[in-house]
From TrEMBL:
It catalyses: S-ubiquitinyl-[E2 ubiquitin-conjugating enzyme]-L-cysteine + [acceptor protein]-L-lysine = [E2 ubiquitin-conjugating enzyme]-L-cysteine + N(6)-ubiquitinyl-[acceptor protein]-L-lysine. This is E3 ubiquitin-protein ligase. Ubiquitin ligase protein which is a component of the N-end rule pathway. Recognizes and binds to proteins bearing specific N-terminal residues that are destabilizing according to the N-end rule, leading to their ubiquitination and subsequent degradation. GO terms for biological process: protein ubiquitination; ubiquitin-dependent protein catabolic process via the N-end rule pathway. One of its GO terms (molecular function) is ubiquitin protein ligase activity. Pathway: Protein modification; protein ubiquitination. Residues 310-322 have a biased composition (Basic and acidic residues). Residues 600-1018 form the E3 ubiquitin-protein ligase UBR-like C-terminal domain. Keywords: Metal-binding, Transferase, Ubl conjugation pathway, Zinc, Zinc-finger. Residues 555-564 have a biased composition (Polar residues). PANTHER family: E3 UBIQUITIN-PROTEIN LIGASE UBR2 (PTHR21497:SF28), UBIQUITIN LIGASE E3 ALPHA-RELATED (PTHR21497).
Length: 1044
């Protein structure tokens, strides 16, 4: 009563029809709202008074029960990380929560994946202790917890009722508090609210008011049940709530009992949410009634609750069944109508339908005759190359949504791409280009010290749509720079932009092309193609003729008589027409895009100003194609994935477009320049008199050489009308480079003996490789080490050449479009024999030397007599041995404290022994740097930069991965203006990172997260990751990354 007065609600509950009168007076809406809020607050206060007993002294509990309850209710909202949970719990006088002692009893710990944190999830058996009106919940938390718990119950196919939990008994001093629930005033309030809900149209009431009343009824029932369960013989239970709610109201109103009203509300359509709760109350009521009857401790008024409950449940089931049946009949009727309409349409358009059937049959026949036939061996190159019917390719522009077929004569379609310099495969990070303007990149050294990698997000645009988009980005950037002097995540001046669809960082576009070889190789092939020896002689004659002609063109006219003599001497090889210039098969739009991408690769790869006329442009294009294929082969090998397994679409599209672009680029370059490159590359394997200063066989990366030779060869072959096909040239170039690579491997292979060698009987391969090794010994003199066993040599050759064969298979697959054999599409075995068959190689690779004995002797002699080979064999210089090992990031210690100790001993190298404030570890090479300080700033390209930025240029070609030791933070840098922080690979016992070392828990290395960082580095995705991070968080753009 006092409470009613304090809340000024006495009037409402004591006057009949008070609510009705209020609701009829529309003008007093605010008063109604205010009264409703007051009633809700009062009911909430009663729930608090009776329900909150988890303080020692109030209820029969201890401190552990209290903290358990806090954790249960926090985890009821959502699973939480350890740090989040600690923050949300109340602290004691020692600033401790006591969580560790009880957490295992109430929650499961779910370990983190590659991202995210370790989470505590509530155990299912603790969900029954959830109290919707927990007093530490805010309004928002209460609704979140209610939603989460209802969702969980729905998933488990349980009732969505959230009944009050069973509470511990009060201490004797507070024991009488529970009687509030069965007091007459309380029952009157309950009855009034329920009556408002029953006659809902005329009264002002709220659902949350009803929900609180139902909760209070539930609490009273739980309390009575508990009293009955704990009763002893001599005691009588005085808590008779069930009896009181069964009685109807007194005169003059004669209102129905609380129980009867609940049963009425159970079938009310407007209270769907509370149905389960009402059902639970009725069920509990019946259970208590049964207990009372069985113990006969107190008579309870007979009601038909059970029968009514069961009948209402049956009614619900019958209603659901009836609705399902109606829905099924309706579906059947619609389906019948649709099939009737289809039949009618087919009858009307019989001829059209017949044509469609015939067309389907013909297309399926074409598919059956496609090159995927399993009984024919698939061959990727050479005269015996598997002929693939050209498939039409239709693509859709992401900007204008227009579909177009990819053709040589149509408008160009392009792929957004990102070209970057890379040292991911480098075996010598100390080497860098001194003078880019004069550097000749024709021969790639096997240490792959710096390559050019091309990546793509795989999104396609029309060339003109892209140009328009890029112009608008440039214009917007110029306007923005006038207003704000901020960096963006991309540098428009360097040609960078974000892909319009996925916002992936890009700096150029690759044109989409059909297989270029089908366009160039349109001439008929004569069946008898020359063998390797004959072909090398023919090519050498053609090269010689070209060189004489070039000399003539460069000499002045005064010596014309001498020239004519030379012309007489020069016997042009049969069918060779050096004056013939082929017609370019591509449209103007495609030619422009070929030049655009070629120039971008040249500009980024050499860090020079763009110049499309520079003779090094085609070399950079071939080099980028070779380097990208090599890096993808490394990734697949490191992850034990099959070479032709299901590659991600963006990777597959990028490799296909890049290889076809590199094969077509010679059509927009100067013919004489490309022929000059071919002559020089060819002379590194087949020496001639005009090229003396070429690198020795140990200093050439054979895959780069193969790509350069194969892609430059059409420039020479287009003037050859003798009938030698392009495929024959590819095959002989490939065989020649493979032989050179085998010699390379034999010269550099370490020859430690293995105890098992002698047990294996010598096979054909072992004997052949032994004979070849002896030939090498003859040509190199005694410098080559003593003869190891044939088995050991063959194993070295086979292991050493595998990466080269895999890269070659990828290259010819994308160049010629021959599908890969199904055997190579699965992981497991080494696939050596399958690769050899696909690449037209004998399984015994040494047969290449035996079949072409006369020329291979001369070639081996010329390769071995190089002065550099002799220096290597005498131990005066090093050489790369094969197979090259994959580069990995440095090994990090298991315990983070080891890194902290290492960093605390590190002093700044430039300030005379002072301790570094921000020691930073390069994860690529392991160098500790003094970051973010003026003492270690250096000048780079005319700008002051910090130690980390300077280090990225010497170690990673502008890209760096660092660990800031004092902050426990990974730092990604790309260039001077791009950077972001990344989640570190160190986690505490609760699966959380501790960036800034604020919590101070012991940290341990998470190998999976470290592998993820390594994978980003291997995939050249660091710059892309930075771009996405800066787009998502604009504050990162404002940081001066160059000063770190």
């Amino acid at each position: 009563m006092i409470m009613l007065s304090r809340f000024e609600l006495y009037q409402i509950f004591s006057t009949p029809d008070y609510g009705k009168r209020f609701s009829s007076e529309i003008t007093h809406k605010d008063v109604v709202q205010q009264n409703n809020t007051l009633i809700e607050e009062m009911l909430y206060l009663i729930i608090m008074l009776v329900g909150e007993r988890f303080s020692p002294g109030v209820g029969q509990v201890n401190a552990t029960d209290e903290i358990k309850r806090e954790i249960i209710h926090q985890l009821s909202i959502k699973p939480m990380a350890h740090s989040e949970l600690v923050k949300s719990l109340p602290e004691d006088e020692n600033k401790e929560t006591g969580m560790e002692s009880v957490i295992e009893a109430v929650a499961h710990f779910k370990k983190p994946g590659l991202t995210g944190r370790g989470m505590y999830e509530l155990k299912p058996e603790c969900a029954k202790e959830f109290n919707l009106y927990f007093y530490h919940f805010s309004r928002a938390e209460q609704s979140k917890a209610e939603e989460a718990q209802r969702k969980l119950k729905r998933q488990n196919r349980e009732d969505t009722a959230l009944p009050p939990p069973v509470l511990p008994p009060f201490c004797p001093l507070f024991a009488s508090l529970v009687n509030i629930l069965q007091s007459d005033v309380m029952l009157c309030i309950m009855r009034t609210v329920l009556q408002w809900a029953v006659e809902h149209n005329g009264y002002a009431w709220s659902e949350s008011m009803l929900q609180r009343v139902l909760h209070l009824i539930g609490m009273a029932l739980q309390e009575e049940k508990q009293h009955l369960d704990n009763v002893t013989e001599e005691h009588v239970v005085t808590f008779t709530f069930t009896q009181k709610i069964s009685k109807p109201g007194e005169a003059p109103n004669n209102s129905p009992s609380i129980l009867a009203m609940l049963e009425t509300l159970q079938s009310a359509p407007y209270l769907d949410v509370h149905k389960d709760m009402i059902r639970w109350i009725l069920k509990t009521f019946n259970a208590i009634k049964k207990i009372r009857e069985s113990s006969s401790t107190s008579p309870v008024a007979e009601t038909e609750g059970t029968i009514m409950e069961e009948s209402s449940r049956d009614k619900d089931k019958a209603e659901r069944k009836r609705k399902a049946e109606i829905a099924r009949l309706r579906r059947e009727k619609i389906m019948a109508q649709m099939s009737e309409m289809q039949r009618h349409f087919i009858d009307e358009n019989k001829e059209l339908f017949q044509q469609t059937l015939e067309l389907d049959a013909s297309t399926s026949a074409v598919l059956e005759n496609s090159p995927m036939v399993s009984d024919t061996a698939l061959t990727a190159l050479g005269p015996a190359q598997t002929q693939v019917p050209e498939q039409r390719q239709f693509v859709t522009c992401i900007l204008c949504q227009e579909e177009q077929e990819v053709k040589a004569e149509s408008k160009a379609m392009v792929l957004a791409a990102f070209v970057q310099r890379s040292t991911v495969l480098s075996k010598n990070r100390s080497k860098f280009i001194q003078d880019p303007e004069k550097y000749d990149p024709l021969f790639m050294h096997p240490d792959l010290s710096c390559g050019t990698h091309t990546g793509s997000c795989g999104h396609i645009m029309h060339a003109h749509c892209w140009q328009r988009y890029f112009d608008s980005v440039q214009a917007k950037e110029q306007r923005r720079q006038q207003r704000l002097r901020l960096h963006t995540s991309y540098d428009v001046e360097n040609g960078e932009f974000l892909c319009p669809l996925c916002e992936c960082l890009s700096n150029t576009v690759i044109p989409l092309l059909l297989p270029p070889r089908n366009i160039f190789n349109s001439r008929l092939n004569i069946s008898d193609q020359p063998k390797l020896t004959q072909w090398i002689r023919t090519i050498s004659q053609q090269i010689k003729a070209l060189q004489v002609l070039r000399k003539e063109e460069s000499t002045p006219n005064t010596a014309s008589s001498k020239n004519s003599e030379n012309m007489d001497e020069l016997q042009l090889p049969e069918g060779f027409r050096p004056d013939f210039h082929p017609k370019n098969p591509y449209s103007e739009s495609i030619k422009e895009m070929l030049t655009t991408f070629g120039t971008a690769t040249y500009k980024v790869g050499l860090k020079v100003h763009p110049n499309e006329e520079d003779p090094r442009v085609p070399i950079m294009c071939w080099g980028s194609c070779a380097y990208t294929i090599q890096s993808i082969e490394r990734i697949l090998s490191d992850e034990d994935k099959p070479l032709f397994g299901p590659l991600p679409c963006r990777l597959d599209d990028c490799l296909r477009s890049l290889t076809r672009f590199a094969a077509a680029h010679w059509t927009v370059a100067s013919l004489s320049v490309v022929q000059g490159h071919f002559c020089k590359l060819f002379a590194s394997l087949v020496p001639d008199d005009n090229h003396g200063d070429l690198p020795c066989i140990l200093d050439i990366d054979m895959f780069h050489l193969l790509v350069g030779l194969v892609l430059a060869f059409p420039a020479l072959q287009c003037q050859d009308f003798s009938g030698i096909s392009l495929g024959t040239g590819d095959l002989h170039i490939f065989h020649l480079v493979t032989m050179a690579h085998i010699i390379q491997i034999l010269l550099t292979s370490c020859t430690e003996e293995n105890g098992m060698d002698q047990e294996n009987p010598a096979g054909e391969e072992e004997l052949a490789v032994l004979a070849l090794f002896k030939t090498l010994q003859q040509h190199t003199g005694s410098a080559l080490k003593e003869t190891p066993s044939g088995w050991h040599l063959w194993r070295n050759v086979r292991n050493g050449i595998m990466p080269f064969l895999k890269c070659s298979a990828l290259f010819f697959h994308y160049l010629n479009g021959v599908p890969s054999p199904p055997e190579i599409q699965v992981s497991g075995t080494s696939h050596f024999e399958h690769l050899c068959n696909y690449l037209s190689l004998p399984n015994n690779l040494i047969c290449l030397f035996q079949e072409n004995n006369e020329i291979t002797e001369l070639l081996i002699e010329s390769w071995c007599h190089n002065i550099e080979v002799k220096r290597y064999l005498e131990g005066e210089r090093d050489a790369i041995s094969y197979p090259r090992e994959s580069n990995k990031l440095i090994d990090l210690p298991e315990d983070y404290s080891s890194l902290i100790n290492q960093a605390s001993n590190f002093s700044c190298p430039k300030s005379g022994g002072d301790k570094s404030r921000a020691p930073t570890l390069c994860l690529v090479c392991g160098t500790l740097l003094c970051s973010q300080s003026y003492c270690c700033q250096t000048e780079l390209e005319g700008e002051d930069v910090g130690a980390c930025t300077a280090h990225t240029y010497s170690c990673g070609s502008g890209v760096g991965i660092f660990l800031r030791v004092r902050e426990c933070q990974v730092l990604f840098l790309a260039g001077k203006t791009k950077g972001c922080f990344y989640s570190p690979p160190y986690l505490d016992d609760y699966g959380e990172t501790d960036q800034g070392l604020r919590r101070g828990n012991p940290l341990h290395l998470c190998k999976e997260r470290f592998k993820k960082i390594q994978k980003l580095w291997h995939q050249h995705s660091i710059t892309e990751e930075i771009g996405h991070a800066q787009e998502a968080n604009q504050t990162l753009v404002g940081i001066d990354w160059q000063h770190l």
